[in-house]
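During the no-cost extension, the postdoctoral fellow (Dr. R.K.) reprocessed legacy sequence entries with the updated structure-token encoder. One reprocessed record is reproduced below for audit purposes.
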Amino acid sequence: MQLKYLCTTLILASTVSAATAGPNDFFGGSLPGTSSGSDSASGASGTYSPPGGDYTDDEKRMQKKYKASLNHARVLIAKGDAMIKKGQASHNDKLLKKGKIIKEIGEKQLTELQANNPFPDMRERHAKSTNGLN
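Re-encoded structure tokens follow.
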């Protein structure tokens, strides 16, 4: 009977300690601002960003996706313009409306992408390349 109580007390004690653990207890620190010895020895911090041009594979992949999204938005705008012109020339209201909608979608995506640009060094280049768009 005492063994049963001992087992339940151990289980309760282990769950209570896990529930009251700090946010970084897994890595050895109990405060969010503390770092383990290996981080302080190497001098790395959580807000480190590499200098321009030294990007990790993940950052390169994200840049590629961002550029593809920008290009897709520009293609939608061009496609919408072409559909609008063709609809006006052939007096096709359906084609005209489709073109306006596609162009609006492309413009909306482009402005959202430019407003939320995650790459600061790309901001200047995209600002220069899109000045003639509007």
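Residues 57-90 form the longest helix (34 residues). The helical segments are 2-19, 37-42, 57-90, 93-115, 120-129. The remaining legacy entries will be reprocessed before the final report is submitted.
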